[in-house]
Design brief:
alpha+beta, Alpha-Beta Plaits, 38% helix, globular
């Protein structure tokens, strides 16, 4: 299992567009319905700091996300927007879960 957390802060005037781009990625992931990918995005109370947490059963499953056109667009658009604070990636280790992550 691979768990990745990414945190970044957009410019205030880009936050809504970023949310829209994330929505497209989530729609595409839902359509794939891959049980080996569990991906969530949250926004902090400031309305412009985003936290993405992705659980992948394997590195190959992570590549599925990276190869989505919507994800590639999301990443390039975010970079081009000039975020206040660029993406910071952390690899996490699962301690426990209230539900099984992968069936």
């Amino acid at each position: 299992m691979k768990i990745v957390k990414v945190t970044y802060t957009t410019q205030a005037d880009y936050a809504e567009q970023n949310r829209a781009n994330i929505t497209v990625v989530m729609h595409d992931l839902q359509a794939l319905n891959n049980p080996a990918i569990n991906y969530t995005t949250c926004i902090c109370p400031d309305g412009k700091t985003f936290i993405h947490t992705a659980f992948f059963q394997s590195d190959e499953d992570q590549k599925i996300l990276f190869n989505l056109a919507s994800f590639q667009y999301f990443q390039s658009a975010l970079k081009a927007s000039g975020p206040e604070e660029g993406p910071k990636q952390e690899l996490l280790t699962l301690v426990g879960s209230s539900k099984p992550l992968f069936n």
